[in-house]
């Protein structure tokens, strides 16, 4: 799909799409959602390269947000192990496997049910 067609489908000019592509402008969550809808790909498609090719990544490398990561995602049971480059807690293999599978669930309701299920099964912090 050309930048012009994508821009038209999103209500943008192709120059605005170019700025997103070059990284001159940041893409907000709602715009990212619209792009995934127009391109008919899951939102996780835009993040696939963040996890591939390595067994461990830090939560910061996965684009952590304002909330602190839940302790169940730390490697092992303590937060002392951290990525040397960021100081962020490391994800273990099983957590990465869960994240990879979760990224491929496209139905938002199912994703929310999965989050609720895992939270209900987690030990209280």
Automatic annotation (TrEMBL):
Chain ranges of the HTH cro/C1-type domain: 1-46
Pfam family, one: HTH_3
Name by which UniProt lists this protein: Transcriptional regulator
Protein's organism: Asaia krungthepensis NRIC 0535
């Amino acid at each position: 799909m050309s930048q012009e067609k994508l821009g038209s489908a999103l209500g943008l000019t192709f120059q605005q799409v170019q700025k997103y592509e070059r990284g001159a402008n940041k893409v907000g969550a709602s715009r990212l959602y619209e792009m995934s809808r127009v391109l008919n790909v899951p939102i996780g498609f835009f993040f696939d390269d963040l996890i591939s090719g390595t067994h461990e990544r830090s939560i910061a490398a996965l684009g952590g947000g304002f909330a602190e990561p839940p302790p169940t995602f730390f490697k092992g049971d303590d937060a002392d192990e951290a990525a040397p480059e960021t100081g962020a807690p490391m994800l273990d293999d099983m957590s990465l496997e869960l994240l990879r599978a979760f990224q491929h669930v496209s139905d938002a309701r199912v994703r929310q049910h999965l989050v609720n299920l895992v939270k209900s099964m987690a030990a209280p912090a």
